[in-house]
Amino acid sequence: MNPKAKVLVCDSIHEEGIERLRHAGFEVDVNTTISHEQLKDVVSNYDALIVRSRTKVTKEIIEAGKRLKTIGRAGVGLDNIDLETAKKRSITVLNTPEAPAGAVAELTIGLIISLARHISLADQAIKKEEWIKKKLRGWELRGKILGVIGLGNIGERVARVAKAFGMKILITKRTPPKPELLRELEGEFVPLSELLQRSDVVTIHVPLTPQTRYMIGAKEFRLMKDGAFLINTSRGAIVDERALLEALQSGKLDGAALDVYETEPTINLALTTLPNVVCTCHIGAQTEEAQRAAATLIAEKIINFFK
After folding, report:
1. Among this protein's residues, is 235 annotated catalytic?
2. Are 191 and 200 in contact (CB under 8 A)?
3. Helix 101-117 to helix 119-127 angle, to the nearest 10 degrees?
4. Do 59 and 165 fall into the same domain?
5. Disulfide: which of 76, 118, 258, 271 matches 136 by Cβ 3.0-4.6 Å?
């Protein structure tokens, strides 16, 4: 490795990842509030960037990065990086999809349970000194059908936990799952339209790409069971929020749980203030374990890249 290789960390990552890079001989600068214009001015000084979701690595940034050899995303999604320009410039893009899998899967299951048992509504009522027990009859996960859109690191973990609760698993993805995994999950591999028609709960675990943007919209909501739930812990723009709002207001869906939004921080109060919508603020990977794993894994991948 070139001992002069320089890395700029543009977003907050666990200190352990930074220390691993320095221990391996990299010169590491950290600027977690750097603006787009500031990054454009200094990126030419660096061989590698590390980002999370805040920093947008645009075509303009990549073209200014004359020394840039790799971009590391401490996390899963790559929608904040211009992959096409990076490829044209022969810049390797690295990420850590394995790091937050457990954390996001656990949040997903938590959101499903919160909707099924009205936990959020009960909490709000108690804090307002209201006893609304008779209004909050929920349902059990056992025996219900969970439709999992995407079966990567996170989707697979969600399916495994849901199966342990006694749910039946439907799966749709671009390519068929391995037969042994399908047998283990006792799941069915079905087209998206069938998954939507049969599922009591639909959970999304695909990356945001031009192909997946608004993949769940008005047409898809019409296919879903009356009274079904939608869970999105993936990326906000995979779901058409206007269509989701209509499906909830019309009673087509009984509820939704959202950790991600088309605009973040979200400004869609018409959607997020509905009583049958449970909201969190993109906290899927916000655990100590996931943050440490994302930082150390991206550090190791950058170290190995330069080797």
Report:
1. yes
2. no
3. 70
4. no
5. 118
Sign of CA dihedral 252, 256, 261, 266: positive
- Residue 148, φ and ψ in degrees, nearest 5: -105, 115
Residue 213: active-site member? no
Find where tokens 């973990």 sit: 157
Buried b (16+ CB within 10 A) or exposed e, 96-110: bbebbbbbbbbbbbe
Mean pLDDT (the chain) is 96
Cβ-contact 171, 189 below 8 angstroms: yes
Calculate the CA dihedral of residues 51, 57, 61, 65 and round it to 10 degrees: 50
d(CA 140, CA 158): 17
From the candidates 14, 52, 157, 235, which is the catalytic residue?
235
Host domain of residue 302: 6-96+288-306
- Percent pLDDT > 70 in the chain is 99
Domain match, 195 and 107 both: yes
- Checking if the pLDDT of 201 tops 60, the result is yes
Residue among 84, 186, 264, 289 flagged as catalytic: 264
Q: pLDDT tens for residues 1-31?
A: 455 799 999 999 999 999 999 999 999 999 9
- Is residue 264 part of the annotated active site? The answer reads yes
- Residues 157 and 75 grouped into a single domain: no
pLDDT of 113 above 80 = yes
Record the pTM: 0.89
CB atoms within 10 A of CB 15: 11
Q: How many residues does the chain have?
A: 307
